[in-house]
From TrEMBL:
Family label: Belongs to the DHHC palmitoyltransferase family.
Compositionally biased region (Low complexity): 11-20
Record protein name field: Palmitoyltransferase
This protein's domain notes: The DHHC domain is required for palmitoyltransferase activity.
Organism encoding this protein: Gonapodya prolifera (strain JEL478) (Monoblepharis prolifera)
Length: 345
């Protein structure tokens, strides 16, 4: 699902590239007079644009989102936007909706690769090199993988949008121009959702929706981390730390054995990789696979540990990531503790 279609009135020439520039100028000139739709009105009107646009009875086109994006400028910068109204009608409903951040896809591929290499190669060295039955390694990593996959699904699928917005059910102000460095929420009212929202709510520009108890938008999970999924995010983070640490140590040990215990290495793999006849090819291929597994585990371990330490530090400070990054503390210590308590319930 690429986005939601807004059954609205569209300005003429909306989909005509040649009129995009003049259309955007008109929108910029009127961006300070964000006309809010009347309560219960299914569509916003174009009162302030009547001198610039004629009204036609065609539905808005879907926001054409690419499959992959790698810069949040796509969502924030007005100079590369094509159809502001179509973009404003779009909101991210879950992390599994395009566009996918390149970091999200990279982490998914790394996760799948690491588990494939572990179960096909590295796990067979647990018993000969460490002295623990291979079955223990399969059970530990298997359970860790299932729990991580479950936490990823939970964190990415839970609805983090502010309940005030869903309950109000108001039409969006599609003409709002998102600008770098300018908050969409002004004086407690969101300029796009047209709803009064609580103090810790932020309109995430990447997801294009108001998020309750906003902490940060995570490109690695392609979703917002906020009150409702914050505890799940911490569990996922801590699980990632120890699983990547184990994977890093094991692959490092096997990589050393590649050179110091070549006979044991060949013998162990030959008993499982039956179809691989040539010993040298087997040695090179397994070595490359395990080397990449170790590098990935090292990278993930460093990143997840740094992130876990940072969130522990935020807990001591009593701040969210957003407050830390902006230097604006919107909550008192007591409110912050209340946020953590509610997010865990
Ligand atoms: Zn909003
Ligand atoms: Zn977001």
């Amino acid at each position: 699902m690429n986005g939601q279609r807004s059954p609205s009135l569209a300005p003429s020439g909306f989909s005509n590239p040649s009129s995009t520039f003049s259309s955007q100028i008109a929108r910029l000139e009127t961006s300070n007079s964000h006309h809010l739709p009347s309560p219960g009105s299914p569509t916003p009107t174009l009162t302030s644009h009547r001198t610039s646009f004629s009204v036609i009875n065609e539905p808005l086109p879907l926001a054409k989102q690419p499959l992959v994006y790698w810069s949040d400028r796509r969502f924030w910068a007005t100079d590369i936007r094509r159809d502001i109204r179509a973009d404003n009608s779009w909101r991210r409903e879950s992390a599994w909706q395009r566009p996918f951040h390149i970091s999200f896809l990279t982490i998914l591929l790394m996760f799948i690769y690491s588990y494939c290499v572990f179960f096909s190669t590295t796990s067979f060295f647990v018993e000969p090199l460490i002295g623990i039955p291979n079955l223990v390694g399969w059970i530990v990593f298997g359970l860790a993988g299932v729990s991580m996959a479950g936490m990823v699904l939970y964190v990415t699928l839970v609805e983090v949008e502010a309940s005030e917005v869903r309950q109000a059910g108001k039409a969006r102000n599609l003409d709002f121009v998102k600008t770098v460095g300018v908050h969409v929420i002004d004086n407690g009212v969101c300029g796009i959702c047209c709803v009064s929202v609580p103090v810790r709510t932020r309109h995430c520009k990447s997801c294009n929706k108001c998020v309750a108890d906003f902490d940060h938008h995570c490109p690695y999970l392609n979703t917002c981390i906020a009150g409702r999924n914050y505890q799940g995010f911490l569990v996922l983070l801590s699980t990632t730390v120890w699983v990547s640490a184990l994977s890093m140590l094991l692959s490092f040990r096997v990589f050393v054995a590649l050179f110091t215990e070549r006979d044991l290495f060949i013998r162990t793999l030959s008993s499982t990789w039956h179809t691989f006849g040539d010993e040298n090819s087997l040695w090179v291929l397994a070595g490359v696979l395990i080397c990449f597994e170790g590098v990935i585990a090292l990278l993930v371990f460093v990143m997840s540990t740094a992130l876990a330490i940072f969130h522990a530090y935020l807990r001591v400070l009593g701040m969210t990531t957003f407050e830390y990054n902006t230097g604006v503390r919107s909550t008192s210590r007591l409110q912050f503790l209340d946020f953590r308590r509610r997010s865990s319930s």
